[in-house]
Write a structure and sequence with these properties.
The complex is a heterodimer. A three-stranded antiparallel sheet of chain A has the order 1-3-2. Chain A contains four helices and three strands. Chain B is of the alpha+beta class. The radius of gyration of chain B is 38 Å and the shape is elongated. Classes of the chains: A alpha+beta, B alpha+beta. The interface between A and B is medium-sized, with 18 and 24 residues.
């Protein structure tokens, strides 16, 4: 099993929002997709996934509905709301700024491109 | 009914929603697990293996459930309700503990709040004037008048030449009766102050304006300021009062302003109508025998000037005044007085206030120690329960929250009961309190201090309640109990020693006051007080403007009262002992014919009264030599006196005083001594007796205008029956004059009000303190006994007798009592000197009193240890060995 990286709470939130931007999906799919996209580097255990989903829902950034899964089982699907979409945009912006800044400090990005 | 239904529906929906949320979450999590299993199956694992791995990967289901739940905004309110319910259940299971804590807290909070509310105004609260700490009272003081005063003869000189003050202003010394003559006539109090008086205090009228300088001049326009009370009571808060003419004493005066509602005179007097002082500087040099009008003077210190500095700077002016105005015989006794306004208003109450505050803080201390001790005992008893709960998955934060909830609930309950108690206590204080305590009638519960005490007790409870929740290692708590609690028992013991020590201090202090109070109550007054009452009739001076009119009125009143049934004697005096006139004579003011004049300023004060012959009969004061005045003496025009035995011994040692002649200063007449009367307590209840001289009040109009007469009535019937007749008789003579009737017993008892107040309060605190200390002691001993049950069993099995066990446990208590008692006794002896000025005929280190207090403490404390010790003694060895 690849070593997973500890994720900050806020980071989990962005990851979930970004993943849900692709369309409605249930909790398990969200976790799988993050793992897949990150090439197994990021694994989100249910212990952080579900509290995060509930938190985002209480904040009104995502909404949930019960539907049928691909193998025809009842499952709870989450999707982005309008505020969630806006929130994602700001979060992404922040993220870009932050990572660029960190990159600069760590000397990983040539100054010419910055 | 409808509301209840609505509420029920709401609650039901809430519950249902919570259920649904819960089951949805379960379903969601279940789905996750099953998805994982399916994925693993798809990867080729066996069903068994896939399930196992999926569950392991998933981790703690319960924990996730909790965390999801905790994402909900306001989720913790649910747990608060849960904590509260749990705490209440715990309290119900353990009512003794609950009641003890709440009662202790209530007592501490209640007593402290009530006392602080009273003393705050005396000691701390700023006076209702602008920058009140810079206002001082300035003037002369001497042994017969300890409040600063000035006279018009030198006031202007001081005011114009002084340096330390920004301003000086004066007011009249005493309000005088005046008549409001309107369609709704009333007798009022009138007073004068100068135009600078209100600005000096930083007060502006609530309506209208202050006096103008041109109004504060002799023969200026007749204008007045009126009090808010008069404006409200008499003029219905009509703003048109400004500029209206009102008739005071038969002369119209124009109202120019209304004083603020909460205005109080710096002398704490009250007045309804204020005239400008309007002193004529030139005339003051000759008025009142060259002294000028007496007045009270207040000044505002310049910024940065201290009272000591001001005194130094005023010294030359004072010296000049001493040389030019004050008669040589009085110079030695005259001093310059400058005091802060607070000291002037509250000086003689400050010590009492500090002592009350100190003792109530001691009570609060004991209460806090008790709460701490009780909370510790409880948490020790619950150590296991906490350990079990934490083993079952309760987080530490949750346990701490639970403890906090309990402490808060107890403190709140204690606060509610305490505030109710404070309100009640405050009422009792107001009833008990002597009239002289300034601001008392305005005292209300002080919310700041209430909050402070509630907070303090909360801290006490929480701190000691939390100790175990914070420090107990979980496993140890589950396994064992004795080892850990040893250290905390030491803490509890020291708390108990402290409690006993503090209550010893309180107890001995109140015992001293009690003894002193008994001495005051038990002393002989030298006169009869039962069945005697006084009738005071302040005659308005503008209608009774001559001595003749006043005399006529009183002689008619005397005759009318004598005709009433059951009346033994009716006398006219100007005062009655034991209070009364601080006579304006010194011994050295009295000259005896044929004897050298005593050195000026020697011999102390001599009380004088001007009385009719019936005075001695009404008060049953025996005339031991010579004879009493006779009725016919009143018409003879002769100047006769009766002197007290004390004065006779002082003036005529070894001689027969009868027939000797005495002359009093400022009175050209020579008085012949007719008789010697037995001594009477005449300097107040606790001060030493003064020599006394009784002038015959003869029917000469000139002598009736000076001191307001007072009628003394001795009746065989109860005052209740007689007083209405008295009132109707006076009303027949003049229906408008107010009549004040007071029994002599009431007046004497009023003089004892202050010692009674001090004794009752301190006694109450001592009682509370002792009670709480004893509860604390009992708690510790009972706990120690319970803890050693097993040891007791072993000892008995090894042959210890029941007496040995009793000794073992009681010895534990005895050590605490002796230690606490000794510490307390030392502290009490050290602090008792503070009480000295409050004590009458008992020294601050009176051995008998201390012995009694110690004995009481020892007995009560011993009883508190013997109860649990006896219980321990009766333990069956077999049961004790099996215990825990």
């Amino acid at each position: 099993m690849p070593t997973s990286t500890d994720l900050l709470q806020g980071t989990v939130d962005v990851l979930i929002l970004q993943t849900l931007a692709a369309g409605p999906m249930h909790g398990w799919a969200v976790a799988q997709r993050i793992q897949l996209v990150s090439k197994d580097v990021l694994q989100i255990g249910q212990g952080s996934l579900y509290p995060a989903l509930h938190r985002l829902e209480y904040k009104g950034w995502i909404q949930s509905d019960w539907g049928n899964s691909e193998n025809n089982r009842r499952a709870k699907f989450y999707e982005l709301t309008e505020t969630g979409r806006k929130q994602l945009e700001t979060e992404l912006e922040t993220w870009t700024r932050l990572s660029e800044a960190i990159g600069l400090v760590l000397g990983r990005i040539p100054e010419a491109t910055a | 009914m409808k509301d209840t239904l609505k509420r029920l529906r709401f609650l039901l929906r809430q519950t249902l929603m919570r259920r649904r949320r819960q089951s949805e979450l379960d379903e969601e999590l279940q789905f996750h697990v099953e998805q994982t299993i399916e994925a693993k199956l798809a990867a080729g694992m066996s069903a068994e293996e896939a399930r196992r791995l999926a569950l392991i990967e998933f981790g703690g289901m319960e924990r996730t459930r909790e965390e999801c739940h905790e994402q909900r905004p306001g989720w913790w309110m649910g747990t608060v309700a849960q904590d509260v319910r749990y705490a209440l259940r715990g309290f119900r299971r353990n009512p003794v503990f609950t009641v003890a804590v709440i009662a202790t807290l209530a007592l501490g909070i209640g007593a402290t709040t009530a006392v602080f509310s009273v003393v705050d105004r005396i000691l701390f609260r700023s006076l209702p004037y602008a920058e009140d700490d810079r206002i001082v009272s300035v003037g002369l003081v001497h042994s017969l008048e300890t409040q600063e005063f000035m006279v018009g003869g030198f006031f202007f000189d001081w005011r114009d030449n002084q340096k330390p003050f920004g301003a000086m202003a004066s007011q009249g010394t005493m309000p005088h009766a005046c008549d409001l003559v309107e369609n709704n006539p009333a007798q009022l109090d009138c007073l004068n102050f100068d135009a600078g008086f209100l600005p000096l205090l930083g007060i502006s009228p609530v309506l209208g304006r202050n006096f103008l300088p041109e109004e504060d001049r002799p023969n200026g326009p007749r204008v007045v300021l009126i009090s808010y009370g008069l404006w409200q009571g008499h003029y219905n808060l009509d703003p048109a009062i400004i500029g209206r003419l009102i008739d005071v004493d038969g002369n119209p005066a124009r109202v120019v302003g209304v004083l603020p509602k909460d205005f109080q005179f710096p002398t704490l007097q009250s007045a309804d109508v204020i005239f400008p002082f309007a002193l004529d500087r030139a005339a003051q040099a000759t008025a009142n025998g060259g002294f000028g009008t007496p007045m009270r003077v207040f000044a505002r210190l310049k910024p940065g000037v201290s009272i000591t500095q001001a005194k130094e700077e005023m010294e030359p002016l004072f010296a000049h005044t001493l040389d030019t105005v004050v008669p040589p015989v009085l110079r030695k006794d005259m001093h310059l007085g400058i005091r802060s306004l607070r000291d002037r208003e509250t000086q003689d109450m400050q010590l009492t206030a500090w002592i009350l505050l100190g003792s109530v803080l001691a009570v609060l201390l004991i209460a806090c120690a008790n709460v701490a001790s009780l909370m510790m005992a409880r948490s020790e008893a619950r150590e296991r329960e906490l350990a079990v709960r934490s083993a079952l998955g309760a987080s530490r934060a949750r346990l701490i929250r639970q403890t906090l909830t309990e402490a808060t609930l107890l403190s709140l309950a204690g606060a509610v009961v305490g505030l109710a108690l404070a309100e009640g206590l405050l009422r009792v204080f107001l009833d008990l309190a002597p009239t002289g305590i300034p601001f008392l009638q305005r005292a209300g519960l002080d919310l700041r201090i209430a909050c402070f005490t509630v907070f303090l007790s909360l801290v006490c409870g929480v701190l000691f309640g939390l100790l175990p929740a914070l420090q107990t290692p979980r496993v140890v708590a589950l396994a064992a109990r004795a080892a850990k609690s040893r250290k905390r028992t030491v803490l509890r013991r020291s708390l108990v020693v402290g409690q006993i020590a503090v209550s010893m201090v309180l107890l001995s202090g109140s015992a001293l006051l009690l003894k002193s109070f008994q001495n005051i109550e038990g002393q002989r007054l030298g006169m009869q007080t039962g069945g005697v009452f006084t009738v005071q009739i302040p005659l308005p001076s503008f209608r009774y403007n001559t001595g003749q009119k006043q005399m006529d009125f009183y002689l008619q009143a005397e005759a009318a009262l004598r005709r009433l049934p059951g009346i033994r004697a009716v006398a006219i005096s100007d005062s009655v002992p034991p209070g009364g006139w601080q006579g304006d004579y010194r011994y050295s003011d009295l000259a005896v014919s044929g004897k050298p004049h005593p050195a000026p300023g020697t011999g102390g004060q001599v009380d004088t009264r001007s009385v009719t012959p019936d005075y001695f009969k009404a008060l049953n004061i025996p005339v031991v030599r010579g004879r009493n005045f006779r009725e016919e003496d009143r018409h003879s025009g002769e100047s006769l006196v009766i002197i007290s035995r004390l004065l006779a011994d002082l003036m005529f040692p070894g001689e027969d005083p009868i027939g000797k002649r005495i002359q009093a200063a400022r009175d050209p007449r020579w008085h012949t001594v007719e008789g010697v009367a037995e001594n009477v307590k005449n300097g107040g209840l606790v001060e030493p007796d003064n020599p006394e001289m009784y002038f015959l009040r003869s029917n000469v109009a000139d002598y009736w205008g000076e001191r307001a007469p007072l009628m003394i009535v001795d009746s065989v019937l109860s005052p209740k029956a007689t007083v209405p007749w008295v009132r109707s008789q006076i009303a027949q003579l003049d229906p408008t004059v107010p009549v004040t009737v007071q029994t002599l017993n009431e007046q004497v008892s009023k003089l004892a009000d202050r010692p009674r107040f001090e004794t009752a309060l301190l006694g109450f605190f001592a009682f509370c303190g002792l009670l709480m200390a004893v509860i604390g002691l009992y708690g510790v001993i009972a706990f120690v006994a319970a803890q050693r049950t097993q040891e007791i069993g072993v000892r008995m099995a090894l042959g210890a007798t029941r007496m040995d066990i009793l000794r073992l446990i009681a010895g534990e208590g005895l050590r605490l009592i002796v230690l606490g008692g000794t510490l307390g006794l030392g502290a009490a002896l050290g602090t008792a000197r503070l009480l000295k000025s409050l004590l009458y005929n008992v020294g601050p280190h009176d051995p008998g009193t201390y012995a009694a207090a110690t004995l009481l403490l020892a007995l009560v404390a011993l009883a508190a240890t013997l109860i649990p010790a006896r219980a321990a003694m009766k333990v069956e060895p077999v049961e004790a060995l099996r215990y825990e």
